[in-house]
Design a protein that fits this description.
Structural class: alpha/beta
CATH architecture of the largest domain: 3-Layer(aba) Sandwich
CATH class of the largest domain: Alpha Beta
Strand order of the largest sheet: 6-5-7-4-8-9-3-10-11-12
Largest sheet: 10 strands, mixed
Helix content: 40-55%
Number of domains: 2
Distance between the termini: 47 Å
CATH superfamily of the largest domain: P-loop containing nucleotide triphosphate hydrolases
Number of helices: 19
CATH topology of the largest domain: Rossmann fold
Radius of gyration: 29 Å
């Protein structure tokens, strides 16, 4: 199928062949269905199709099954006969087994290349969402980010934010006058949540070297798109970190990539598995911004495909933007299930050959009810579709092969070693040490004076204008000295690596420029 990804179809009961038009693949999509109905295989064959078309892919591997994309399928596989029979049934004439170019990533650095971002790039909105903060606590995080921007304090890892929050708490009085109330209780609550995040292993995600987005948009030497697989089986133990990371990545793509309009094929396709985690208990402000990104990012050439058990997991305003649909079976055991089934059926363009609601309920494993965008972006008539068999291995690869792929990857060595350059933690620690040393030196000098000299310095003298204390005054408070020291160093800091114009984007991320 020219300029299309062959999806399946064929057979008397299934109508014509079904394909996803590459020109409309950036109009986003949905893969839905109950557990065990074939969503993973559909995701796998779409990733294969995009790769063969030269389109890079990013996807999360929640169960470990998708690592099989890196290995070729085999005639020894127990389902080989069923695969070849289905390929013949649907007219998949050039069906063959093959492996695909894969790069493995892992936030924890165990099953792939380490993937990181900085605290600053995460932005206050997403960071507050990650920590499940209240509105008041989120306000304190926003103040901390503002202070970091204004004072030239790079926020790279968690210890940078922890050190800055200590300073914010110590100077809460002055900050409250300018930005609003900063309570020690809120600062303490945020610090506790940061500790929980550390205990979950989230600290490994923040730091440098940060992920370069262009590394996700590579093509192999044979022109096929690189398939980037995020190992998520362990990450699912911290579902909020999982959802926040993927949302951050989506927002970074939106903020960074140039406008391309409607290209002949996407520049990148992004699969968001377990999509309900993104929206569970999410505040309306965040959902609205996700909707805004989903609506606008297609003009950057990025297609976003949500994978979930039920279309109801996706907010209606976002669901309406998902033009390419792959609906596997939904089971209707309860009244609520039946209503959900009916709502799902109503979103499709009817086919006179069958009732959509019956088809969604009755399709078997490896079948789906599909509707893809056609000419001028018009939704196609709903069809029952036999999903084509994958060419790569169905199921996970072994650890030995994974290790060999990681070692031979172009990314090998680039992200393996953590960098710890001078940032907020080091700057604040140095200033605190300097202020403490200055205060100690001043106290030592005062103690070395004789009682008569101390009494003379503390005495009142007539200056000709007014009565005043001597010029030898008590040492200022540590917080005041620290604040003054910080202000005097701003110009110097801004001349260095932090001397950049900083503008926060749609989800709180940063544009950075000289």
């Amino acid at each position: 199928m020219e300029n299309k990804i062959f999806v399946g179809g064929g057979g008397e009961a299934y109508g014509t062949k079904q394909g996803l038009t590459l020109k409309y693949a950036n109009r986003h999509g949905l893969i839905a269905g109950a557990t065990g109905t074939g969503k993973t295989v559909t995701l796998q064959i779409l990733a294969e199709g995009f790769s063969n078309a030269g389109v890079p892919v990013f996807l999360s591997d929640v169960k470990g099954d998708l690592s099989g994309l890196a290995a070729s399928g085999s005639a020894d596989f127990k389902l080989h006969g069923a695969f070849t029979e289905r390929a013949a049934t649907i007219g998949f004439e050039d069906y063959r087994y093959e492996s695909f170019p894969v790069t493995f990533w892992d936030l924890f650095g165990n099953q792939g290349h380490s993937i990181r971002t900085t605290v600053a790039e995460m932005g206050p909105l997403l960071f507050s969402r990650l920590l499940q903060l209240t509105e008041a606590q989120e306000g304190v995080v926003n103040i901390a980010y503002r202070v970091a921007d204004e004072q030239g304090l790079p926020l790279l890892d968690l210890k940078d934010l922890q050190a800055l929050l200590v300073w914010v708490g110590e100077n809460s009085g002055e900050l409250s006058l300018r930005y609003g109330n900063v309570s020690s209780q809120s600062v303490g609550a945020i610090q506790r949540q940061l500790l929980v995040l550390e205990n979950q292993g989230g600290a490994q995600f923040f730091g440098e070297p940060a992920l370069a987005l262009e590394d996700l948009m590579q093509t192999a030497s044979d022109g096929r798109g690189q398939i980037n697989i995020l190992a998520s089986n362990k990450l699912m133990g911290a579902p909020r970190l999982y959802a926040t990371f993927l949302l951050w990545l989506l927002s970074e793509l939106f903020e960074t990539l140039p406008e391309v309009g409607d290209p002949d094929k996407p520049k990148l396709v992004f699969f968001f598995d377990e999509a309900h985690l993104l929206f569970d208990d999410a505040p309306k402000a965040l959902v609205d911004k996700v909707e805004q990104v989903a609506r606008l990012i297609r003009s950057k050439g990025v297609g976003v495909y949500f994978i979930s058990q039920n279309p109801d997991d996706i907010p209606e305003d976002i669901l309406g933007q998902l033009g390419n649909r792959f609906q596997h079976a939904l089971r209707a055991f309860t009244a609520r299930d039946r209503k959900a089934l009916e709502r799902a059926a109503e979103t499709y363009r009817p086919n006179p050959r069958f009732e959509t609601v019956d088809a969604i309920r009755d399709v078997g494993v490896g079948e789906a009810v599909t509707s893809m965008l056609e000419k001028k972006g018009v939704p196609g008539v709903v069809e029952r579709t036999l999903i084509r068999p994958p060419s790569s291995k169905l199921g996970p690869i072994d650890e030995k092969l994974r290790g060999e792929i990681i070692k031979s990857s172009p990314m090998a060595g680039k992200y393996d070693t953590t960098l710890d350059r001078r940032s907020a933690y080091e700057i604040l620690s140095a200033r605190a040490s300097s202020a403490a040393a200055e205060a100690e030196e001043s106290e030592t000098r005062a103690e070395e004076l004789s009682p008569a000299e101390r009494e003379f310095n503390a005495g009142r003298r007539y200056s000709g204008n007014r009565v005043s204390r001597s010029s030898s005054r008590k040492n200022r408070s540590f917080g005041r000295q620290f604040g003054d020291a910080m202000s005097s160093a701003v110009i110097k800091e801004l001349k260095g690596t932090t001397g950049r114009r900083i503008v926060r984007g749609i989800l709180g991320g940063l544009f950075k420029g000289r």
